[in-house]
Design brief:
With 166 residues, the chain is of the alpha+beta class. 41% of the residues lie in helices and 21% in strands. It is built from 5 helices and 5 strands. A hairpin with a 2-residue loop joins strand 2 and strand 3. The protein starts with a helix and ends with a helix.
Length: 166
């Protein structure tokens, strides 16, 4: 059974998939063109995050890829952790404030959105694709974890918005 290209394309686009699941050469071409356009826009300082946040991510992962990078017993940043963090940044919608990039002694990469001491969100990216978040929004604290499947979890997007809205 052959799935029509339009259905395959719409499913792939709706899922935000980077990998092509297209059934026809036309659908694969459209997916590739869409991916290239998205990458170009993400690199735009005006529409996307700009390249500096990706440079920060690369620098952090390079500087912390050895055990004990903190002069003590810190775990290294794994290639998997780097890739999940990269994909998370890449999947943020246009117009979202860019986070600062940090690293934790357990080998996780941290993305932080900070407006003030009482308006901040920290998202920790693990090597197994889980996102651990903690936010302080005024007097309210919230935290939890979500698996990352290629799209930013709704709760994380809501918390980013609330950091800057309040």
């Amino acid at each position: 059974m052959t799935i029509p290209a339009e259905i395959t394309l719409s499913v792939a686009l709706a899922s935000g998939s980077i990998a092509s699941r297209a059934a026809s050469p036309t659908a694969r071409y459209i997916l590739d063109a869409s991916r290239q356009t998205r990458e170009h826009l993400h690199k735009s300082i005006f529409l996307g995050l700009g390249s500096e946040v990706f440079n920060d991510l690369f620098d952090v992962s390079e500087n912390c890829k050895q055990s004990g990078w903190d002069g003590d017993s810190a775990e290294p940043i794994s290639h998997e952790t780097f890739l999940y963090a990269f994909r998370l940044l890449e999947s943020l919608p246009f117009g979202v404030q860019k986070p600062s990039v940090g690293v934790e002694p357990d080998g996780h990469i941290t993305l932080e959105w900070y407006k003030s001491p009482r308006h901040t969100l920290s998202v920790s990216v693990s090597s197994d694709g889980f996102l651990f978040y903690s936010a302080l929004l005024g007097l309210r604290k919230t935290n939890g974890s979500e698996p990352f499947f290629g799209e930013v979890p709704k709760i994380v997007l809501e918390l980013i918005g609330r950091v800057y809205a309040e």
